[in-house]
Amino acid sequence: MKVLVLNSGSSSLKFQLFEMPQGKVLVKGLAERIGEETGRFKANDYEVIEKIPTHKEALELLTAYLLNPAHHIIKDKSEIKIVGHRVVHGGNTFVQPTIIDAAVKSKIKDLFSLAPLHNPANLTGIETAEEIFPQATQIAVFDTAFHQTIPQINHQYAIPEKFYKAGIRKYGFHGISHQYVSREANKRLGKTNTKVITLHLGNGASATAVLNGKSYDTSMGFGPMNGLIMGTRSGDIDQSIIFYLVQKMGYSLEEVQNILNKKSGMTALAGSNDLRDVETAAGKGDQKAQLALEMYAGAIKKYIGNYTAQMDGLDALVFTAGIGENSETVRALATKNLTYLGLEIDSEKNNAPHVFKGDITGKQSKVKVWVIPTNEELEIAQQAFALIK
Ligand code: ADP
What we know:
Elements: E1 2-8, E2 12-19, E3 24-32, E4 39-43, E5 46-50, H1 55-67, E6 80-87, E7 98-99, H2 102-110, H3 119-132, E8 137-142, H4 152-155, H5 161-165, H6 175-189, E9 195-201, E10 205-211, E11 214-218, H7 240-247, H8 253-262, H9 265-270, H10 275-283, H11 287-311, E12 316-320, H12 321-326, H13 328-334, H14 347-351, E13 368-371, H15 376-388
Helix pairs in contact: 1-3, 10-11, 11-13
């Protein structure tokens, strides 16, 4: 069965077409700079640079590619039985992959205020896909759903209860990725009663404590700004800084939001949100870049300690996403001096994890340390396929 997975952003649309249940990728690509003067559409080896006014034209480019007899992918659009959509915020409503109908769309709309940058774009993707693939079952897979198992002790904030009742709680993000890599970790551990910490380190970053296969705590909260230091986001800060910036330094709330979201993190500490630049600068002796790397890894280590304490132990630590999968420096710094907890990595394996199937565990280590590439699209395809089957 052919399952198309869509990840719609405000000006981009990433897609993958899978043959399920094998999970074979038939087409992979993206449309970007949608709505701008020149857009780019790429599917497998095919690329075109032209104006892509809306998501609709992006999906039309995709269907033209899929139907092109030279590509041998599909003969008719009806062969695509399922379109799986990544939806960032499911609030308290959505804890499972969900078949999309009018009521579901209206609830996704109700959640716009909780994810103003993401849910509107996700809904656009859904509505466009309904138009272009009317015969397919549209299924939403939510980035917050995996974290709905986080117990109240970890998801409620210590603020007046009326706010909790109004939906102000920890939701967590990157759930699809944490779920995918933690399940892979449990497969490797060969059991499900496990204590795992997953570190999704991309442009955004979050750590999750996964106890017995379920999210038990995560570092992002009500929104995606707190927790770990990120490319442009501050991670955990003292709330009083916000009041000081507004009340004493004259910044508007919008400015503060912009500073904490777009001008903080590695951008603020080292002048770039791309970790490769920071590593290069640190390698040349740039002290700010060196400190930035130490701080970045230090924030991760605080969560490793926190979550190990909460779970009373640790079976495996998993690194994933752009930085987790590629930065031996961050992996080495974040796991340095954790011998008290019986965790150490093998530096030779850390420098070439792909050679060792991602297993960078040190010889004496009691805790497994793995680099597991995330695959959010495959996870969405699997969840959507399982729902229909
Ligand atoms: P997103 O959160 O947008 O999905 P990714 O998971 O692709 O992001 O991660 C992107 C980040 O990964 C980049 O900003 C870059 O800092 C980092 N990255 C990618 N490749 C490398 C590498 N070889 N070494 C260090 N960092 C890398």
